[in-house]
């Protein structure tokens, strides 16, 4: 078959295809990395990858031949945990944070998530869409081609629907694929402060309404001290499962509550954050094949400890890495910074990090049949970096190394500027 596009002279091609583990690899390093490679694309899908020379039978009259000039190419980054759609910003909390006022105390006093809820409720769908489109453009320029987006700044049926409809609109209007998650259980809204149990009943009633409108694939919950207890989380997640949602949990972010154990019990696809996960929790993640989705830029920004990622890798847990982009604990769109934090602070190797932000990111969204690695038949979502080796991406930190981005085989970022 003739290719539509062939990228040749690729210095290092990280296909992220899972390969058999050699004795010197951890269970996160077993991805294919080919030096001196090519990548062929047909109809927006990967046709073939391999070591040069490019097979002659792939080249047709209309094949576009693109010289990658010995740069690094990887799958598009999958950011599998974000709070993308919101209005306003929270820099007013910065001095409080610097003075050491805890995140949960700011929330308790009506700030934090609740202040973003007030701003988001006041915004129109168009305002939310325009703001999120700008964010998505920044993410795209950092190499991101798939983003999960949680609601949770509406906290009543009408406002949650508004946020989720923005996700749908973004999916239509932006090249990045959006995976929508309902997170009505992000906080107890101010109007339920004195009767939080009634808000649990409200969420239970929202679930079938959201599903009926087909507005979200996943349901997530902030299982945390002073937010939703393990029992409350169990009740909501089990109902969500019955309604047909796949499950995610914000688990053991600040206090070790048992969120990871609950993720195993209810069959969640992923448990996210895990800064305070217990040994028992790690065991349950492994036994139940729950992806540990870690968000190290949140620890960095809050000045908190990191998830015990080396321990989790040693125990055989699959790790995904994402940004947690949100206006409070992690206002950054820069997935490369997140990856660099994984390298310098979490002591993860480049191969482990690339697996975490590509194949395992896709797994955390149950999208690994379609994206997350450059394998025949998967979406031709890939990134060309302005460097000839993968170590350099982690070594020269804090800058954007992404030069070009292709989504479904089409160039959407060229020389660091969007061209879609
Ligand atoms: O993942 N932990 C809960 N939710 C977000 C923060 C949201 C916010 O502060 O607005 C998080 O860190
Ligand atoms: Fe989050």
Word description of this protein:
This protein has 420 residues and is α/β, with parallel strands linked by helices. It is 35% helix and 24% strand. α6 (196-212) packs parallel to α7. The protein has 2 domains: 5-75 and 373-418, Urease, subunit C, domain 1 (Roll); 78-363, Alpha-Beta Barrel (TIM Barrel). It is globular and about 70 Å long. The two termini are 27 Å apart. The protein has 15 helices and 17 strands. The model has no long low-confidence stretch (mean pLDDT 97). It has helices spanning 94-98, 103-108, 113-122, 125-141, 157-173, 196-212, 230-242, 259-266, 279-287, 296-302, 309-314, 335-344, 350-357, 359-364, 390-395; strands spanning 5-18, 31-42, 45-51, 64-67, 72-75, 77-79, 144-150, 177-185, 218-223, 246-251, 270-273, 291-294, 319-321, 382-385, 402-407, 410-414, 417-418. β9 (218-223), α7 and β10 form a beta-alpha-beta unit. Residues 83, 112-113, 116, 222, 250, 253, 298, 324, 326-329 line the site of N-(iminomethyl)-L-glutamic acid (NIG).
Hetero groups: N-(iminomethyl)-L-glutamic acid, fe (iii) ion
Number of domains: 2
Spans of at least 5 consecutive residues with low confidence: none
Mean pLDDT: 97
Instruction: State the helicity in percent bands.
Output: 25-40%
Instruction: Kindly report how far apart the N and C termini lie.
Output: 27 Å
Largest sheet: 9 strands, mixed
- If classified by CATH, what would the architecture of the largest domain be? Alpha-Beta Barrel
What is the C-alpha radius of gyration, as a whole number of Å?
21 Å
Can you identify the CATH class of the largest domain?
Alpha Beta
From the spread of the alpha carbons, the general shape counts as: globular
SS field, number of helical segments? 15
Annotated CATH homologous superfamily of the largest domain = Metal-dependent hydrolases
Instruction: Give the total of beta strands.
Output: 17
């Amino acid at each position: 078959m003739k290719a539509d596009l062939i990228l040749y002279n690729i210095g290092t091609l990280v296909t992220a295809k899972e390969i058999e583990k050699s004795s010197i690899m951890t269970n996160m390093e077993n991805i294919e990395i080919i030096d001196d490679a090519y990548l062929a694309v047909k109809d927006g899908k990967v046709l073939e990858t391999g070591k040069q020379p490019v097979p002659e039978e792939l080249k047709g009259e209309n094949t576009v031949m693109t010289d990658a000039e010995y740069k690094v190419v990887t799958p598009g980054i999958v950011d599998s945990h974000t709070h993308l759609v919101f209005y306003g910003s929270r820099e007013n909390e910065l001095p409080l944070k610097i003075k050491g006022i805890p995140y949960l105390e700011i929330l308790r006093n009506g700030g934090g998530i609740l202040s973003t809820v007030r701003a988001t409720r006041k915004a129109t769908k168009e305002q939310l869409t325009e703001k999120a489109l700008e964010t998505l453009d920044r993410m795209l320029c950092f190499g991101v081609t798939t983003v999960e987006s949680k609601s949770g700044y509406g906290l009543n049926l009408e406002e949650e629907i508004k946020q989720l409809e923005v996700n749908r609109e973004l999916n239509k209007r932006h090249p990045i694929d959006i995976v929508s998650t309902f997170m009505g259980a992000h906080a107890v809204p101010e109007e339920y402060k004195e009767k939080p149990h009634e808000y649990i009943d409200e969420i239970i009633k929202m679930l079938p309404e959201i599903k009926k409108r087909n507005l979200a694939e996943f349901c997530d919950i902030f299982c945390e001290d002073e937010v939703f207890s393990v029992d409350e989380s169990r009740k909501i997640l089990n109902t969500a499962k019955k309604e047909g949602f796949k499950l995610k949990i914000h688990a053991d972010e600040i206090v070790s509550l048992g969120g990871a154990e609950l993720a195993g019990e209810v069959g969640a696809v992923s448990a996210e954050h895990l800064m305070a996960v217990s040994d028992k929790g790690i065991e349950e993640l492994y036994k139940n094949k729950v992806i540990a989705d870690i968000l190290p830029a949140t620890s960095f920004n809050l000045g908190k400890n990191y998830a015990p990622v080396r321990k989790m890798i040693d125990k055989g847990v699959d790790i995904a890495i994402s940004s947690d982009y949100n206006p409070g604990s992690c206002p950054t769109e820069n997935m490369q910074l997140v990856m660099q934090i994984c390298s310098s602070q979490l002591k993860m190797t480049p191969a482990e990090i690339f697996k975490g932000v590509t194949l395992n990111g896709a797994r955390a969204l149950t999208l690994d049949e379609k994206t997350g690695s450059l394998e025949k038949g998967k979406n031709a979502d890939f990134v060309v970096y302005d460097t000839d080796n993968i170590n350099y991406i982690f070594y020269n930190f804090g800058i954007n190394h992404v030069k070009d981005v292709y989504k479904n085989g089409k160039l959407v970022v060229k020389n660091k500027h969007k061209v879609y």
